Amino acid sequence: MTDGPDTVNSIVRRARRVQTERMKFARSLLLLSLVAACAPLSIYYRPGVSVARLDTDRTACEVSSLRDAPVANQIRENPPIFVPGRQVCVPNGACTTYPGYWRSGGFYTVDVNSGLRARLMDQCMGRKGYQPVTIPRCESAVAQAVPPGATKVLPKIDEKSCAVMNRDGTWQIVTTR
Length: 177
Description:
The chain has helices spanning about 10-40, 50-70, 115-125, 140-145; strands spanning about 40-45, 75, 80-85, 85-90, 95-100, 100-105, 105-110, 130-135, 160-165, 170-175. By secondary structure, it is an alpha+beta fold. It folds into two domains: about 35-70 and about 110-175, no CATH class; about 75-110, no CATH class. Residues about 1-20 have low confidence and may be disordered.
C-alpha cells in the first residue's frame, strides 16, 4: 500500500516538495535582498542636472518608449516532462506495474517588447544628453562618515565616486579624495 502512486508516501513526498519549493523561494528572496543591498546605483547621468529634472526626463522617456513599444506579453510553455513507468513488487512476489505519463513543464510569460523598449529608453535619454552610468556603493566607513542627505544636483563623478543609498529610496553621490 505504501508503494503505490496514490498512497500516503506519495502525499508526504509531495508535501515535502512543496515545503522545499517554499524554502528555496525564501532563500532566493533573502539572497536577492542581500545582493540588492550591495548593488551599485545605476542611473542616467548628466552633470549639473537636478535630480528632479532627471526624474521628469526619465518619466517622459518611459512614457514615450512604452507608447512606441507597448507591453506585449506572450504565454509560453516549457516542454512536457515524461515520467517513466515503474514496477513495484512486494515481498510475497506480487508485482504491480505503473505506466509512464507526461507531466506539464509549466507556463511562463515573456514581454517580447522589453528589449526594444529598453533601447528606445536609452535613445530617448541620450537625445536629452544623458548617459547610463553605474556608480558603486560606498564602503560602510565612507557611508557612515557622510552627513545624511540626498543628492539634489548631479555632481561631476570620477573613479573615486560612490553612492550611499538612503532608506527612503533616495541616494547621495559622494566623491572621496
